[in-house]
Design a protein that fits this description.
43% helix; globular; six-stranded parallel beta sheet; binds flavin mononucleotide; 8 helices; 6 strands
Length: 239
Amino acid sequence: MASELTRRRFLGTAGTVAAAGAGTTAALAADSAETAPPEPIKIIGICGSPRKAKTTATALKICLEAARQVADNVEVELIELAGMKIPGSPAAGIPLEDGEKDDFPKLVPKLSDPKVGGIIVGTPVYFGDMTALCKAFLDRCITLRKDNFALSNKVGGVVAVGAARNGGQELTIASVQAVLFCHEMLLVGDGRPTSHRGATLWSGCPGGIEKDEFGISTAKNLGRRVAEVALRTHAAKES
Ligand SMILES: Cc1cc2nc3c(=O)[nH]c(=O)nc-3n(C[C@H](O)[C@H](O)[C@H](O)COP(=O)(O)O)c2cc1C
């Protein structure tokens, strides 16, 4: 797909050159557009489980691996919020208490980096919704919205993991998506053939989440879809 996009960009450039009747310099520019490696784009996974390296992280790793496989220029990074201190109150302008730790500011440059083409938010289902940690993180992202909509036009996808097969994964996805919409993110669901709202995994599956064949297929389809759409929007920005 990446080479297809590069070729299309080249054809566009070559067309412009021909129309302008320009000479060698422009032709060389077109040549280098063809040969230049495509710019890397990054897909970030945010894991909102308070438990490090557990089932939600597993689901996100599956998503990110599928995203990485879409094209050579797709880079991925998993950020686990587990163990970080992310107080929610500063979102409402309440200052930190004396000595209170806050790990959120160090995430800001990572998220707003223009190289980031997509963000996949993963959360366990807690009583039919996201975890408090995931919500605190998303509330704090208001600062990115205030900062000239730094997440605008990045592609967004959501993963929800519940202990029950129908434990509220879709409700949870909708809840996270409601926040991402407010950032002007471009939301996608899991791509074909499952094609619904996002990745819905069942950690209580006999044998563990790795045996949840359907859920894993939604995770792969989401990762792939996020990367594909991110590559398209990135190419459109460049042309
Ligand atoms: C407070 C709490 C509430 C939960 N509520 C639900 C729920 O409503 N539906 C569900 O399917 N699982 C529920 N679970 C189970 C977790 O979603 C499930 O164990 C998940 O795999 C945990 O993700 P993790 O391994 O990444 O921490 C709940 C767990 C906790 C601790």
